[in-house]
């Protein structure tokens, strides 16, 4: 059994309980409150909070969600996330630049779909190979795409050192270039994509993904179109990652080059879903919060403990040790990630009331 | 023509160095079915420890011995803390655990021994010598000879000793091996220690070539296509894969690079490996897995 076959990830796998209906409505209420608060945040949050914490958190969660669809739900391990994000970012950039009539959301979605097509091609070998061999083919895509974007200046509109910068972000006449606007753009996108993903994983497609993940040979035996499910998983996952990449480039950093989407980014997104929980949409958000907050927290703690006596390099080493140790610990003790922990807590609380 | 031969020979020698790293992966994979991503971190850790000891003025052989002792301790600890609790988990989980492990080893090594670039001199001169029509680096030849000796020693170790025999039993069927009384845990520790030894040799040779620094961990990324072409389970495959990758990499760099207008060495080996995979999904020498429901 793969570790990803988490009980909590399967809808209806929890024993039916009396509290089910209230829990559901309580969940919906909580979600509604959360979303409303999220939209009200720019009124109170400082630019630092928006720029350094909330925007990267939301985008990492989106990228994690994309990988989670491919890897957590459909079981197709991929280290090409960075490449998909890069494809999305550069495609959106070129659409905004060369087809200025398109509104921003359309460019974002089309850019994502271009990344999805790249993902489809990268996913083709999954029809024949699996496991690490598949991981290696996604690595090939990672290196190749980074190289192509650096090598051929057309993609970056002949900018020096192939960087791309955000054009003016605007939607229906509203300027979205300020931190508050970029935050709202990111938030809106993340909510829409999450809603679609939520429906998707509970549909026929999502169920066939999970069957393929749990054992593709068995899935084929019971008549699930395995090839179609795998390719769909790569396409949808890469599309979401592509949208995340475009947001990373334009709503978060403003100016990027292909190196912002290198192998380290792929690892980082994989860590998001290992820590948060594979096969759990909420897990992508929990993992992203963790990945974004831990370094900030660590540098604050180190500042207090060592009082500036520790340099950035050492801090990064400490951070690596912590992340690495945490990942090993989670894989041993909580293979379904922090989201499984959170959902156990939630059920305990719900059972008590 | 002699330029072509020189490129080819240089590539083949570089390939031997790749193979050296790849062998470390094969050992661990055969014994525990883990693609050990931490092998690169072990290479870095070994080279960094060795060079730090050398800079303190410790004798060459003693430094080697101390480093080896540290790597053996690391192997035992890894078996105890990471592998044992994860026994019988799916391969991809183990792979991710070694990913975490590599972060820990890299972070710790650099935290304790610094991240600056160290020079490493093994006392092997790096002067070109004439071999018929072509010139080859003496250092590369020495490295290739070392790698060759290591491959022969490892083959003998796994073919002729009891540990080697039990390793082959475990690789064949872990359950059956356990039931006839093979101590899996001891075996894992031994194999990781041997992989540590291979990492030390690789770390010294690579470190002497390009300086001991963080980029040593990237040899993992060079070794991965080698493994795919050769198959994860075969030492001979690792050597052949290394030679193929080394030769085609340097030929592609010279003859294909200018056509595409840039260095192709970051990805060429991978694309080659994918092409191999599509033709032979278990590598040239790998065993084809049979799946049952």
Report on this model:
The complex is a heterodimer of chains A (about 350) and B (about 290). By secondary structure, chain A is mainly α. Chain A has one domain (about 5-350): ABC transporter involved in vitamin B12 uptake, BtuC (Orthogonal Bundle), CATH 1.10.3470. Chain A is built from 13 helices and 4 strands. In chain A, strands 1-4 form a two-stranded antiparallel sheet. A two-stranded antiparallel ribbon of chain A has the order 2-3. The two termini of chain A are about 35 Å apart. The model of chain A is unreliable at about 1-20 (pLDDT under 50). Chain B has about 290 residues and is an all-alpha fold. Chain B has a two-stranded antiparallel sheet. The relative contact order of chain B is 0.19.
Overall mean confidence score, pLDDT of chain A: 83
- The name of the CATH architecture of chain A is Orthogonal Bundle
Through-space gap between termini of chain A:
35 Å
The number of domains of chain B is: 1
Counting helices, strands and paired strands, the structural category of chain B is mainly alpha
What characteristic shape of chain A results from the CA principal axes?
globular
What is the residue-averaged pLDDT of chain B?
83
Q: What is the CATH class name of chain A?
A: Mainly Alpha
CA-atom Rg of chain A in angstroms: 20 Å
